[in-house]
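We were asked to recover a plausible sequence for a given structure. The inputs and outputs are reproduced exactly as logged, with field labels preserved.

PROBLEM: sequence recovery
POSITIONS: 358
GIVEN STRUCTURE:
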């Protein structure tokens, strides 16, 4: 299932449905740098969206169209123009959303894994920092998608299985990609460049009478890892609404995967129970691998919080991340990561005592 998503993102990245490759290589950056919004409007109107026949458009083409129109639309909004300046843009985004099976605007996937590589790379500014930012997010998403192919699903998850323990151990290894990415951001993308030059392009868009937030790393498929490991039975309403919100912005395959899993109990809860059972030693390998995943996540989340704090500190007060969140959600996720590490550590310690006492 997730393999299908990996394959389709590659296909989308190869497409140039509106023949905009050349425009995105140079003129687009020039327009954005000079706030020359008329140049973007002219290009958008030249696409004659109202005349495009939709019946033969495939899902991947619709996703590539959404990506490219998203770059134009976000630039319009960034320079204070309305989407209505490009004739037919809003209805077109709504119509192709039915084909793409996704929200009627671009998302994190459009900006990263569905973005062409090399010279064809789409970016708002062309700045080295933005290209690096796209690259780091892309590498992380690619690793997480590969990891999801390994992650035991609900049917396969067995706290006493050595095979599950090995799969979870490999997942922890792949998740390690996140920490060097955020360390590189800290070293190479100053809060001023990110907050003043890049962040303004990730504003919400009004489409079909609703506001849709911009590309946010909160839309990463990491959502599903937390969900499986500890989130599925977490009753915190802030966490649950954060999860639901970002799942809605995810590709259909991610949404279907989550629905089909139908998880009601998290892997931590299932493993904790097994560690309290008759043969606790059998669940130790899975418990240790889950602990490894949470440790890797904690190693990413704390430096990430630092980067976000440094960015918020150079912005005007009460601004939000592009996904519409402030520091609270990042702190909440870090706290749950730590809380669940402590849970599984305690359960492991108690199971060892139980073994010694026998
Ligand atoms: C200057 C760079 C960055 C800033 C200022 C930043 C800030 C934020 C903010 C404010 C959020 C909350 C959601 C929102 O409103 O968008 C968020 C979420 C998130 N960001 Fe970043 N971020 C940055 C770079 C990165 C990078 C490079 C990665 C990974 C490679 C990343 C991964 C995540 C993840 C996974 C989330 C979801 C929350 C979590 O799982 O802890 N971010 N980020």
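RECOVERED SEQUENCE:
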């Amino acid at each position: 299932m997730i393999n299908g998503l990996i394959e389709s993102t590659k296909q989308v990245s190869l497409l140039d449905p509106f023949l905009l490759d050349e425009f995105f290589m140079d003129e687009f950056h020039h327009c954005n740098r000079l706030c020359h919004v008329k140049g973007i409007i002219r290009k958008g109107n030249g696409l004659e969206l109202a005349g495009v026949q939709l019946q033969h458009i495939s899902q991947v083409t619709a996703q590539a169209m959404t990506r490219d129109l998203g770059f134009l639309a976000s630039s319009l909004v960034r320079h204070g123009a309305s989407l209505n300046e490009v004739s037919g843009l809003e209805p077109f985004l709504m119509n192709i959303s039915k084909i793409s099976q996704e929200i009627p605007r671009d998302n994190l996937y459009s900006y990263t894994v569905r973005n062409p590589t090399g010279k064809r790379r789409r970016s708002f500014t062309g700045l080295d920092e933005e290209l690096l930012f796209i690259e780091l997010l892309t590498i992380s998403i690619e690793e997480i998608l590969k990891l999801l192919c390994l992650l035991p699903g609900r049917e396969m998850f067995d706290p006493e299985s050595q095979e599950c323990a090995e799969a979870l151990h490999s997942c922890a290894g792949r998740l390690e990609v996140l920490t060097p990415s955020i360390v590189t951001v800290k070293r190479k993308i100053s809060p001023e460049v990110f907050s003043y030059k890049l962040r303004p392009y990730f504003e919400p868009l009004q489409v079909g009478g609703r506001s849709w937030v911009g590309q946010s790393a909160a839309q990463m498929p990491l959502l599903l890892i937390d969900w499986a490991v500890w989130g599925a039975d977490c009753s915190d309403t802030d966490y649950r609404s954060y999860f639901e919100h970002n799942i809605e912005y995810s590709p259909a395959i991610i949404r279907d995967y989550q629905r089909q899993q139908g998880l009601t109990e998290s892997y931590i809860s299932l493993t904790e129970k097994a560690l309290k059972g008759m043969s606790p030693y059998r669940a130790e390998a899975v418990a240790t691998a889950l602990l490894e995943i949470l440790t890797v996540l904690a190693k990413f989340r704390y430096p990430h919080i630092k980067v976000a704090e440094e960015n918020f500190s150079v912005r005007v007060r009460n601004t939000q991340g592009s996904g519409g969140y402030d520091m609270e959600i990042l702190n909440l996720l870090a706290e749950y990561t730590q809380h669940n590490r402590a849970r599984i550590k305690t359960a492991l310690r108690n199971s060892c005592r139980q073994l010694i006492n026998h």
